[in-house]
Amino acid sequence: MHRKFIALVVATAVAITGVSASQAKAADAHDILGGLAAIAIIGAAVNHYNKEKRKERVTRQNNYVYKPQNVRPDHIRPLPRRVARYDLPQRCLKTYNGYSKKRPLLGPNCLEKHYKHANSLPQQCKVGFWDGKKVKRAYEPACLRQKGYRVVYQ
Hints:
- This protein has five helices and six strands; from the N terminus they run αααβββαββαβ.
- Helix content is about 45%, strand content about 20%.
- The chain starts with a helix and ends with a strand.
């Protein structure tokens, strides 16, 4: 809208200038036609520029929501191996008497049984605690979470 208005103002100014100059020269028909041709050329150039700008615009309207039909929740695709290897089994979470009743830990024996990458877990997340008889070791879930692991139901 602004470009069209500016083009109109410029065309009008050129036309008035051409007409007033041609009146001073006794209004030759050639001058008037030359002024009109100049206005036409400027208008065509502005119109061409606007068309090119409109072609560059990309408009998208996504007003629909895709809802697949006949999809059962038990048919969810599994994660790729490189992502799924960071999923720790929830069944290995348990509370230990010597550690804390509110904060469960991941037992190393359970992880070795139910998680095939147990030997690659970060050692700095392994905590040791006294249970009254001996020192036990387990993995702190919060530390593992910071390293990119997550506890999931499997």
